[in-house]
Design goal:
This protein has 79 residues and is of the alpha+beta class. The protein is built from 2 helices and 4 strands; from the N terminus they run ααββββ. Helix content is 29%, strand content 32%.
Length: 79
């Protein structure tokens, strides 16, 4: 069974996929200094990383980081 993150990555071009894999690796390694990272308003511990038109939403806790979504920016990205 294909998870939702893999399914979302398959919709991107090869170049975008390579960029997103690097971003996901950096999120996992917690090395986000070179990215545009913001905490979402009215959300507890949920952040977004912006890389061009692509957004990665993730939840950060003391012990772990969970990827919530990988999407191209549109009107429904943050719903």
């Amino acid at each position: 069974m294909v998870d939702t993150i893999t399914k979302a990555l398959n919709k991107f071009s090869k170049k975008e996929r390579a960029i997103m894999k690097a971003v996901l690796h950096d999120i996992k390694a917690n090395t986000l200094e070179s990215y545009d990272v913001k905490k979402l308003k009215a959300r507890d511990n949920i952040y977004r990383v912006r890389k061009g038109k692509i957004r990665v939403l993730f939840q950060k806790t003391k012990d772990s980081i969970s990827i919530l979504a990988v999407e191209k920016r549109n009107d429904h990205t943050y719903d």
